[in-house]
## 1
Amino acid sequence: MWSFILKRLAQGVITVWFIATATFFAMHNVPGDPLLNDRAMTAAIRANVEAKYGLDKPLGEQYVIYLGNLVRGDFGISFTQENREVNDIIREHFPVSATLGVLAVLFAAAGGVLWGALTALYRNRLPDYVIMFFVILGISVPSFVIAAVSQLALVGVNAALGVTLLPVAGWGTLWHMLLPALVLGMGTMAYLTRLMRSSMLEVISADYVRTAKAKGLPAARIFTKHQLRNAILPVITVLGPSIAAITTGGFVVELVFAIPGLGRYFVQAVQQLDYTVIMGTTVFYGAFLVFMVIVVDVLYGFIDPRVRMQ
Amino acid sequence: MSETQRPASGDGFTQAAGTQLALYALVAMVVLAAIMALLSFAIGDSSASGGGAIDAERNAITITLRQEPPQLDATRSTDAASFAVLGHVMEGLISYDQKGQLIPGVAERWEIREDGATFWLRDDALWSDGKPVTAADFVFAWRRVVDPATASQYAFITYPIQNAEAITNGDLPPTTLGVRAANERRLEVDFQQPTPYFDKLVAFITFLPLRQDFFESTNGRYAADADMMLYNGPYLLSEWVHGASMRWTKNPLYWNDEKGFLDEIDIAYITTDVNAKLNLFKDAQIADTDLVAPMLPEAMERRWHIDRFMDGTVFFLEFNHRDGRVTKNKNFRKAMQLAQDPSELVYKVLKEAAYIPAESLFPSWIRGAQELLRREHPPTKHEMNLAKAREHLELARQELGLDDFPPIVLLSGDTPVSTLSAEYYQELFKRNLGLEVRIDLQTFKQRLAKMTSGEFDLVLSGWGPDYDDALTFGDLFSSWNLNNRGRYDSADMDANIRIAQSELDPVKRSAAFGEIQRISYEDVVILPMYERGWSFVVDPRLDGLIRRAVGPEVDYTYAKIRSASQNGDE
């Protein structure tokens, strides 16, 4: 088991190095640079600014310096937020994205498993049809539409009640998180519901379930131990990548609900060619994603010993 | 599988399993609630919101900011979001009144001569730690702006001061800058060349004061956090959670009783999303919000009082005047000019209620010697004339010796308004002149990169004012201006710009601007498109919110909450 984990970690480090290198050169090949602004700079002013950021050196040298800093865990200073270190930006804003993401994943996972099991139990009956209708909706409607519509609906509800039931936007309390987390988790929840449903349907008529029924085990026990437990495996497989995807993909939801998460820095940095923030967030998110995949692999090994053998 | 083929135990099994599932659902909900409570506890109650849009009891309002201010060190800031914050917490020598006229700030009076200027500072202007704002604070700040080590992108705006340019070029030390503190209350400035508009210039953010001992005590962290700044404006930045919220509190030491009426201004939300802002406004969480065209019908239905303001920016199609481009040919440009009419773009295509068709390089609000420049020197009246346009096109064809014109590259930004405008021009020039226009849609930085390197024939461009003088637009197409990205180069234009820069007689200066305007039309330097404006709505309980073209884009320093009696209710 330990050699398995170590091997996966070593692979992860190489992956992250590759991400960092590819991003570095791709970014420098995009036309334009972070120093371009509405107001043109004279050659002298520009040279001053370039020297300040070390952009006057050849690209190869910049890359070596960059890798050196990366190993020391120093991402540098943002080009657009000139007084902030990228490390500070990640430290201050990632917890917000992570909190929102974790909550969204919990909603998605709990909802996905429960709804999926329910639709499988009642397949081809009314609950199945109703839930699957919403599942299709959840999969096909993009999150920015869901976010905007749900926010608008909340404004309507607040106005009708005459009190603020839930805050329309912002961040800070439990109540601020509820709606954005639900919206953010909606797509994944729909996806997991479908996955859980088909996976449930596969095991529902499996031999061991028939055996269990023949043995006269109680229905609740068969359902939990034989059906749910086996059906949940594929759901766990996709959970790791979904955690990373949700945590990193919250940009739109963060924008609509005015949440100070890392997502907006991630997207704005690319638009503004903020080299240091692009590198910082990409490498950070890349490492995070790789780490989540490793965690899931290891978890999977615990749940299904067959994985460890291979 | 049909219903009858289900296992016999089916319904009983489903029921039992369903009950079990319901139980799990209940457990899941309890666990989720517990986790949420835990998370909420972990992040702490950092919410800055609470008072709602208008809190009459606390004399406070809640507003939004478009983005986190990127740079509050005024010597280095370049963007509108930072300007808006600095306009509330800092004050320069000169500031603006409610009508946008210059009024004394830290300087109680000033004198501008041919060779320099003198500012007499008031003795009740104080820093937020109680020490007086002195002439030395301006000397320190301005030297920092021009110092190459600071790498200030706006250093160019100080070039009228003696030696400023040489210092940024690294040829002279910063101490040689033509500014000195004659005593604590008198600031003397020497000019590189006569600068009749210097009073308007120093109202700009780059000229704000900075105190040396405080700056040095921050160890390079100046303006990184709320406690890393010293304030001298009507408000103090008392709280700053990066990317999330800010709080401006009334500055008790501020000298001017005519500014800063609110005790507190909470910036509880930072978002660019206009729809989210509209929802917050409807929910009475923020005091004002912008309205874009699709929102106007609902706003009118709700009988909101819709305000408008011009943000000062003029948008235009800029030609590439470099050699080898067809757009260098004057007849070609003339043909394009005669084939279009900006009012069609504004009223029939863009349909933004607060936009107006641009008639010239100079926006309608720019002042001349006595009154509006537009009255003193009206722009050439433009009329679309397709027959004449085609004549010019034919002339251009002969002059250039072409059978067919190559496709015209129209460089454009990727915002909805830019995209719409670009598509409109593409269709227009095809229909009216038979020209093929290729749209090159680029993000902000990429568009700037291509503008700088000249990879375009036409570019959708715009220019906003830095200071309240016609020169902020007037020198744009001088051969030496780096913002002249089409590289327009004319001796006639340059000569008039030199007059506008240093002529002390306001009437002659205004005439020079009139000439610049005439040349830019007759030589078809650009095709003016529109002057940008915004519709916005303010909570009726709030008075005196100012939005304007020059100075901070939004100004709450004159805002006050109406008393209950004025309000008519409560």
## 2
Amino acid sequence: MSDDAIRDAPPRRRLSLGGASGQIGLLAIVIGFWVVFSSLAPGFLSTFNLFNLGRSLAVDIVIGFSQMVVLATGGMNLAVGSIGVCAVMFTGFLLQDLGLPIPAAMALALVLGTLLGWLNGMAIVKTGVNSFIITLASASLYLGAMLILTKAVPYSELPAAVGAFGRLKIGTFLSPLLVIAIVIGAALFVLYRFSTLGRQILAAGANPRAAAMSGVPVDRVIVFSHGLSGFLAACAGLMLVARLGAAVPSVGGEEWLLPSFLGPVLGGTLLSGGVVAVVGTMIGAALVTTIRSGLLVLQIGNFWLQLFLGLILLFAVFVDRYRSVYAERRSTRQR
Amino acid sequence: MLRRLLLVEWSGLLAAIVLGSIALTFLAPNFLTEFNIYVMLRSFCVALLVGFAQMVTLGVGQMNISVGALGGLVAISLGGMLEVLGFPLVLAVPLAILIGALGGLINGVLTVRTGINGFIITLATASAFTGINLGITESIPFYNMPATLVAFGEQRFYAFPYLLIAPLIVAAVLGVFFARTVPGRQLLAFGGNPTAARLSGISSERVIVLAHVLSGTLAAIAAVLAVAQLGSAQPTIGTDWLLLSFAAPIIGGAALTGGYISVLGTMFAVVLIALIENGMVLAKVDPYWVQFLLGALILTAVWLNRWRAVRTGTD
């Protein structure tokens, strides 16, 4: 699947070879787009654009991670956007209305995100109903509750330090948000590759029954993954608050749905569970952000963006599909 | 007796509808007025077809995330054909529905040919359809719709809107299709147990493609009705269909795993949703409550279905 695709099955060497090429291929596509965009529009490589690109990339990466950790268990989380926007508005409420210090507000928002994700996980495990339908319903529930409580009024008078952090630059154009996203990625990589819990999650995702029989607490692992997903969605929400310098109720929601799947699926995370690609998700998110930013700089406008993203997702899943068919054929021939 | 009632998946729904109507009659004096019933029935039309569009894919064990996106594309195609190209209504409406069927065909063929999860395929095509919609219209609606179409969307016979004719016909056709025709039975058989269906000679490719084509067609009919109802072809038609499309069949008792659907149950579910929305308006409650309640309703329905399955021993 990919060189970091952390798989469950032992034959890692042979399969990861085909996978690494997939991820390198994805990286090559991203670089290709960079070459095209920067030659067509010199503004693409300006420090201003690179800085903005890095900031949105950071958010896209974390949104992708939020979906990825649930995909690992073979489920999905359609409530990613709703949890994100709940965390956004909760932060705004804590900072503006209650006047809490920034670290406390952020911590509480992360707790809220984790709690909402945990609730999803509990509902899935307790009812035994498909995660799709539970998170579809809870997405509407969370979003509705947020809108009822906030009346969809943005919090725009946040402490200046919040927006200032979003505008902060390390060196000429590197946003600290991107650094945070990469740190989260590293932590997830360690979780899935080196920790018992991470291995248990992947085992439960690949084959729940086999995992349960070998002593993996499948239910607990699923609840944990949903909690983690909620935490990461809240992280992405906080990043958006920093980027916008305000808590706006229109971010998140259904808008995150497509990007949340694009990153992991492009990167080689399997929908059927059991395989995650942390680095792949980051490159996948980079592809999405690059195209979005490039179309913006080329002034093609947002209208066609949706079409491009859809076609790219289709293209990516086809390539992935035929790669696995090809790999299968080659391995049978070798036998 | 209780056991038999419990077995009927829409029994609870019917009870909820009756109780809700009685409560609204007492609480809101203008609930039972002719005009209010007309308004409710009118909002019921599009919602029912949207629910049906998802129901047919659920029946075969698939899902169609692109229901709303396809609806939006069909709506603006219809608007464009009528306003910009000047097509007559009798040509534009069938063509618009054909576009919907074609979109469904694309979904189905892609799903079958690649063997990729229908969720991802339709998520991707949804984005593509929306992209085409926005790219063509740049978010500007077509306002000049023919008077016949607008009249069809507005006129009524006492409390009965003419618009309601279409969904009632579709519901009857779907009911017969799934209960009495070979392709309909094959579709459900495949949804219930793909392996068994394949072994008994049902082509899995054909039923999946058929379900997606039907889904696209139904979404297209919903879009045409939405244009008639609004009196203009808005590019935003369909943006809020996703949740509704799943809510209606699932509250109506459809199994997410495929193989079991209920046309009548879906209808009752949409009635209940329309009732709730109407109640919210009459009670002048924040419209955001609808979103919240719809989510709660789905969770309740899912939980009730589980409970019923355990109680009646059909699990």
## 3
Amino acid sequence: MSIRSAVVLAAGEGARLRPLTKHRPKPMLPAATKPILEHVFDALVDAGITEITVVVGYGHTHVQSHFGSTYRDSSLEYVVQDKQLGSGHALLAAESAVSEPRLVLNGDQLVAGQIVEDVLDAHENDDDALATLGLIRHADVGEYGGVICEDDGTVETIVERPRDDRTYKLNAGVYAFEPELFDYLHGPEPHLNEYSLVDGIANAVDAEETVRGVTSDGIWIDATYPWDLLEVTETLFESADGVESTVSSTARVHESATIVEPTVISADCVVGPGAVVGPNVALGENVTVGANAVVEHSVVDADTRVGSGAALVDCVTGRNVRVGTGSTVVGGPGDVRVGDRVHEGEQLGALLADRVRDDGGVTYAPGTIVGSDAVINAGTTVRGTVEEGTEVQ
Amino acid sequence: MCGIVGYVGSTGGDDAVDVVLDGLSTLEYRGYDSAGLAVPTPSMAVHKAAGELSALEETVPRDDLAGESVGIGHTRWSTHGAPTDANAHPHSDEAERVAVVHNGIIENYQRLRDDLADAGVAFQSETDTEVVPHLIRRYLDRGADPETAFRSAIDQLEGSYAIAAVFDGSETVYAARQDSPLVVGLGETGTYLASDVPAFVDHTDRVCYLEDGDFVRLTADGAVVTDGEGETVDRPIETVAWDPEDAEKSGYDHYMLKEIHEQPSSLRQCLRGRIDELEGTVNLEELSDIDHDGPVQFVACGTSYHAAMFGAERLRAGCVSAQAFLASEYASDRVPVDGDTLVVGVTQSGETADTLRALREAARAGATTLAVTNTVASSAARECDHALYIRAGPEIGVAATKTFASQQLALAMLAFELGDDPTRAELEALRDVPGQVQTVLETTDAKAVAEAYVDADAYFSVGRGYHYPVALEGALKMKEITYRHAEGFAAGELKHGPLALVTENTPVFAIVTGDGETARKTIGNVKQIASRDAPIVVVTDGKSRVTRYADHVLEIPATDDLGGSVLANVQLQLVAYWIAHGLERSIDKPRHLAKSVTVE
């Protein structure tokens, strides 16, 4: 029987992406110019899914208001999960909406349509499987879920963050499953107070249920840290079914400005005289790039204003950011501090969270992170981390 | 003021009961105090019930009517007679040979009713509508065929109406339109009729708008439109772009909250392609052939009137003589209107009867007319010389929210088109509004303020300049959905009387932006209120010192006064919503109200 319905788990904040996730959840952060979740929906709709149940939680009004009740003619239903207690718990939130085989996947990871299609095909053609998992070969498997299959694809081992030196494939977080899987989700003891989908699947494997893995090629990207959004955008530009260079018909680009591809310029943007935008730039809706400003290798989110003569290199901005006249984001690599950990040599010029305002002539040292609503006075040089709402003189 | 639906299904079409009930559910914004339907085959069956549509759904014996493909239905907002079962539509004659649904007011009904009563007719209801089936019956008794009887009865009527009728055992629906909206839908599963497109948009997007004086005969094959003389007239068939999804709640508890949260995207739509910051101009494509330098008069009702006041204020700032009038009070013999005047009707639905009447009167006086509306091909858009669309998308909640915000921005752009050219700073401020509304939605403390004052005796709001209409609108929102007393005042007027109402249990919402002269004067008024011990909630960008007098602050991003008034209004919408929520009111369907009022 063919599967037409999917559950998308989009309730988590994505705490490691702070301060970008101060007001909206990780699935709504931009991969190029569209939210990550929109790319996930595209993969589903391309694979023939027509009914999507979205489990939302943190910042859920952002998801609901952005997408409404349908996406590309597929219906969207929302289930609000008040407390985020892991992927298994999230799926249970949608249990009452599930009476037949379903697909479930994460709303905060970019996944190629091919992976979705392969999982659906394999599950529909396998009468025995309680669940079918999408797998890929990936170097970072130690950071995510690992799976070892027998030769016929039957899952033998499924674990989070494998630490031994066996050869694991990466669990892409795309599952087709029969409703009976819910019996095993109710079962597991919460692991660190979180009910994970992986625990439930592992329970089913232990109970000798048939769970299969299917290995695909294609993109699978997870943005763990804010600077990953730059790499995600670059990957989408490079990939055949990713993002193409475009300039919206409602954007106004001055004839003396230069657009260097690949670059996406969204609706209502304004690019002033003499500005240079690109390569590898994604401008969200209603962004202004002032006269003679330079923007390269950057993701600039909606409503941001880049002042005249400013330069942004390797920069991620949130929404409504004001970069003043002549300010400079020097570009990476730099050392970035997140919590207690310092990430050395990351390709990040600066991260400016929602509504950061600089008054002009500001220099951002490589790896600077500025929290939302911070104000930076003219002529300042900033480095390291600036807490949200502070004023830097 | 009501919604009507009609359907004639083709072979393989749907059950009329389902089409009619589904259609009525989308028209509940037009009224929801009683509902009914009639299925004329195999023999006339009429069902009706006081209360919301759910009451009718429980009453209708679906099994008995299964397989029948002809029907009409009605959802009512009372004008003549209380919302009772008897006063609900459809109305029929004593022998149930004909059943009629009606939207509008029959002005000469008393005379018709007296004549019929003299002739021995026993009326079952207090409605004006009931004269229609009895009139039709009289012509049937004289040997007229149904269509002739229907036309003869309609000829007797004066007033406004969209009327549909079905006859016992017949698979044809007859309808007529005069000053009340009526649209025909042509689908593969049958032929549809409704007061508004959403009633059948799930079935077809091919529509035909009827004009005043039109009659229409609906059969399974299609519709034949005729004029008063019986001559066939061609009405163009249009394809409507209407996304049925917009009429769903998307996981929100209420349409109102959904629509409040949709404001950033609806405002983006309103502005899209209309601002050219590189050239420093506003380009309203629809108005490219308007060339007007005379005075401007706005006519509007309710929330739209507040938007009109705002628009007039902005035009005056751009050196254009402009005034806003309540449409119901607008009369050309008392207002100086002539060929040099541009009369702008602001109406979300484009069907507001008071506004349409005022626009017609202005047109008769020689004025150029412009409709500022959310509804493409609405009566206002079609009748006026020009139309400017606010592009807010469908609004379902009876309390207008996103359409007011979009009216504000559309009228600000109109002011730039007609008056002085905008500065770059003004254009950038307009472009900033959608993102700043998003900021308000993300950071608002409105829920906490609502919780603090849910039990207040009354609510007052004050503002100056652009914030005065917003103070009025904030109070109207509060009245509409909380049923509590609320008043908005020009900040300077409070001391000339209303201050007597202010007590320690009447919170006053003051809107103050910037730190210019307007702000300083309003702060002076706030001090006067504070010294009477009233709790003060200020809605402010924090540029002035007003917060020192405040018990609560609702913060908005800093921008110019015009943008600030859009943002301040969003805060007041949210306060009203959360107070109504706390009081467990029927937020999307407040008592006694309807969204689009098509009677005067």
